[in-house]
Structure formats: structure tokens, C-alpha cells
Amino acid sequence: MKKLLTFAAAAVLLCGCAENRENVLKVYNWSDYIDETVIGEFEQWYEAETGEKVKVIYQTFDINETMLSKIEKGHEDYDVVCPSDYIIERMLQNDLLIPLDRDFGKTPNYIDANLSPYIRACFDKMNGNGKNANDYSVGYMWGTTGILYNAKYVTDEEASTWDVIRNPKFADKIFIKDSARDIYSQIILKVKEKEIAEGKYTLDELMNFTSDEDLAAVEAYLKEAKDLVAGWEADFGKDQMVQEQGWVSLNWSGDGVWAIEEAKEAGVDLRFSLPKEGFTVWFDGWVIPKYAQNVKAAKYWINFMSRPDIVIRNVEVSGYVSVCGAPEVRDAFTDEDYEPIDLSYFFTPADTAVCANPVLYPAKADIERSTQEHDWGENTEKLITMWSRIKGDNASGMTYIIIAIALVALVAALLAGNAAKRRKRRARRRR
Question: Do 42 and 90 lie in a common domain?
């Protein structure tokens, strides 16, 4: 009801300001991906910096394609949105983005002062049809894709390879994200392992492999794992891991951190592995769409979201990791409970021994085995069709039982009103 009232109020406000959009900023972001108290602070900060008033209309989405369709087909006039990496590529290729002007007058440029050099280099690699993604977007949060596993049943060595998902020892204890793009991108690294070792292909080159032959190789590999999989899931897999109903989960680092923390309270030892064959990193970033009506406020919003103190608050609420490489952020998430690791690639060359959670901030030696996904363009339909064949049309009885348990658990969480945990449980339905 609260969200309905918010949207209704937003609609009334927009109707009243139809001829005065310079005082309204429309933001479209992922659900539970911000400390919402910073929205009002931005309005005050913007007026102090520019002498102009602005009212933020903040709306959320759960699927990238929903957001993209509203802009691409509906020409919605959102001023700033936060798509994932491959959608940023698609929007660049389809001329749906406005270049980001970094001139803030007397206001500091927090974007370029604090953006991690690693993130900047990754955005340089995006396929923008001749356009550099760094000129049109600014990273927001990032993470990795790996293996969440129960150390009571799965050894570190077994979890060090993608082959763990087709190990018969773990039959009916394996959960895999229902995310065609994410899963394909990991398994192509496995099926091409020999060629990589021989130097025939690089990890980055393999992310552009979308031929029928490559699809068939990945499909064959995953079909070997199919009968061992307890469920293809969007959000309930990590709960099953915490409850020891699952022992292996192909998952995102953000969900992995949540599950590890929850499991620890229950005396369950969950760990997160980045397989030796290689893995992908993912990014979400702020962009200004083609149909934006308040470009000035939009760029100030992105700048404000790059301010270290705001970054820290958004990370603490969302549970994800910021692209910000400022020393304040490094210090805020330094934790002496962890062994020191080399994070010189992300922060500064001097940061070779930072005590940080390696699931959130992978060590340099691990990140060197990473690559990043890209938009499939006209081949997307082939990928979706292949994924449908792998999963099949009929869900197993076990899958239905698990879904029912997950729904009961979710209802219980809602009734308990544990909002903080709900924020960190929410899946990134990004693909």
C-alpha cells in the first residue's frame, strides 16, 4: 500500500509539473538498492550547490528488460536509470544514452576522483558500437559469479571447479541460477579450458563466442548436470543452502555473502569459491537516457551517488559492493577478522595487504582469472531457446516442494517484519 501511495503521489506531482520538469528528477533504480534517506539529502544538497530546487521521483524495477522496454518502446522520460552491464551496451548500441558531462562548476567531481581504476578499465571493454561506456555511464555496484558451497559436504578442491555442478556425489543438492547469460558465460570457460591453457583463446575473447557450435557445447555440458540439479532458482537457492537442503549453488557474490552470514548464525559453514577455469564479474551503472528531461539534475545525482559517505551508506543498506575506490570506502569495509589480501588493482598500488572480505573484494590473483559478459544482440533469442531446452518444460516434484518451502519462509519473514534482512535477501533479477 505504501508503494501504491508513493506512485500515486508521484503521478500527481508530475501532472502538476508537466511544464516545469527542471524542478523534477525522475530516478529509476533496482529495488532495495539504495539508502532511501539519501534521496531527501540529495534534494537539499542540489539546492545548496546550484541554487535550484528539485524534487526526486524515485521508482524501482526488478528486471532489466522491463526498464529498457519503457525507455526504448515507451519513450519514458526517466532522467537517470541504473541498468546492468549488458543493457548499458545495448543502450549505447541503440543510441539511447546521453553523454555524461562532468562539469560541475564549483562542486567537486566525485565521479572521477573516486571511481576504481579497475572499474574504469572494465567499462572501457564494453561493446558500445564505437562509444566508450565511461563517457556515457558511471558504475554503481559490482560483484562476481561463483560457487557457494557447504564445507561439511563439499571440499575446497571440489568447489574449485565448475565441474562441481555435475558431480554425482551432490545429486539433488545442487541449485543453479535461472539466468541463461550468467550460466553460459561460466560454462563456456569450462568447455574451452584446454584451448585457454594452450593460449588459443583469452577469457575476454570467449565472452563473444555465440556460434551454434559453442551453444551446443555448453548445452551438452549442462545437460549432464541437469538430472543432479534440485532447482533452477531466482531467489530461493541461498535459503536452501542456509538450511542445508542444498550443498552447492552457482550463485552471485552478493547472495553468497548474505547466505554465509545467515548460515554462520545457525552453525553452518558456507563458503564461496571462484573456480579455477575463470569466472565473470558483473556491473550496474548510472546512465542518462535519451528521453531525459532534466539532464542537469541527473548528472548531479550521479555525482552525489559517487560521494564516499553516500557510497558507504548505500552499500550498508543494499549489501552489495560499490565501484568506489576512495580510501574512506576501503577503510569503512576493512575488517581485521579477515586475512590481508592484495587489493591494489581496485584501490591504490599501495593496497597490497587489506583485511577485507574476499567474497566482496576478490584478491588480485583471483580477479586475474575473471572476465565480463556482453550483450548478445541478435543472438539473444538463440541463448534463451537453448536455456529452455536445458531446463525442460516439466519441473520436478522436488522443485515444487522447494518453491513451496521458500514461499512459506518468505511469508514468515514478511510477518516478522525483518526489513533489513529482506533487503539483503532480494535477488538481482538482472537477466
Answer: yes
Task: Give the CA diameter of the chain.
Answer: 65
User: By C-alpha distance, which of 155, 180, 181 is closest to 273?
Assistant: 155
CA 172 to chain centre: 27
Cα 110 to Cα 429: distance, rounded to the nearest angstrom: 29
Which pLDDT tens digits describe the chain residue by residue (431 residues)? Answer: 334 334 444 444 444 444 588 899 999 999 999 999 999 999 999 999 999 999 999 999 999 999 999 999 999 999 999 999 999 999 999 999 999 999 999 999 999 999 999 999 999 999 998 999 999 999 999 999 999 999 999 999 999 999 999 999 999 999 999 999 999 999 999 999 999 999 999 999 999 999 999 999 999 999 999 999 999 988 788 899 999 999 999 999 989 999 999 999 999 999 999 999 999 999 999 999 999 999 999 999 999 999 999 999 999 999 899 999 999 999 999 999 999 999 999 999 999 999 999 999 999 999 999 999 999 999 999 999 999 999 984 344 444 455 445 444 444 444 444 444 444 444 454 44
68 phi/psi in degrees, rounded to 5: -60, -40
The C-alpha cell 515444487 sits at 400
Q: Quick check: 124 and 133 in contact, CB under 8 A?
A: yes
Go through 26-50 and write b for each residue having 16 or more CB atoms within 10 A of its CB, e for each that does not: bbbbbbbbbbeebbeebbebbeebb
State the residue range of the domain holding 17. Answer: 2-111+286-322
Return the H-helix or E-strand segment holding 260.
helix 253-265
Distance CA 414, CA 404 (A): 15
Q: What is the CATH number of the domain that holds 18?
A: 3.40.190.10
Whose grid coordinates read 559490482? 142
Q: Sign of the C-alpha dihedral, residues 309, 310, 312, 316? A: positive
Q: Is residue 230 part of a domain?
A: yes
